[in-house]
Amino acid sequence: MTTLPPRAARRCHHAVNPLHSTLYFSPDLHRELAAEGVTDSSAAYFATRSAPLGRVAAGTVTATFYNFSHELVARHLPAVWDTVSPEAVLAARLRAVDATLRRLLGEEAIASEEMAEAAGLALRAAEACTRHARPLYSAQADLPVPVEPHLAYWHGATLLREHRGDGHLAALLLAGLDPLEALVSHTATGRGMTPRFALATRGWRRTDWDAAVERLRGRGVLDADGELTEAGAALRAEVEEHTDRMDAAPYEHLGAAGVERLAELGRGFLEAAVMAGAFPEGLVARG
Which domain holds residue 164? Predict the structure, then answer.
């Protein structure tokens, strides 16, 4: 088994994962899905991310996405499949990824040797991902790998993202954090979504958020000011450490040099995307 430097896999994930996420904020995705009859942004997100699972209903998406209100999910699923099929969404998604990455990164980066190298490294890492108890990863792994390197890189990034994400949900359950408590405590780390953005996109009411804050105070996770206590910081650190352990295999398979190189390439592409305005203002809390 390869020994990696401490948190190397996590740093690599943080460099690679966000390029996958640019899709959900992309006007190219909304244009593609609007052409299929899906104009609501929440419906577009749920359809886009769950399409690899097939024609699923609200319960499956609430379970696998974890931090969304079931009420919001049920407002759009399974109704969205009466408008567009999962197969059509997958095709629209790939067209949108192509347009988004070309717009954010530029044609030179798309055609570069570095892009092809990043795709190869991400896909090699994903060879060691496992399917059991990982529904979003496993569904994504059933899809064909695109031929073009920038699309293959996005596909590999998506495999790695969903593999880690599925494990992260198990860590949240182990920590006793329900969906909204997970959001609130993550925001309190200074690295999660802002409360405003979380409430606007996850379907929760402000009263729900405030109730979660009170529950976390009662457990000693948050202090009177809503900041993490020492115990709360330890709990969040434990969640990430459990997630790291469950997500170690792909990065150990890639090896220390490969992980370092993939992280380096990923950071370069991510910085270019951020500079091009890939993400909205006010998305992430600043601690």
Answer: 9-275
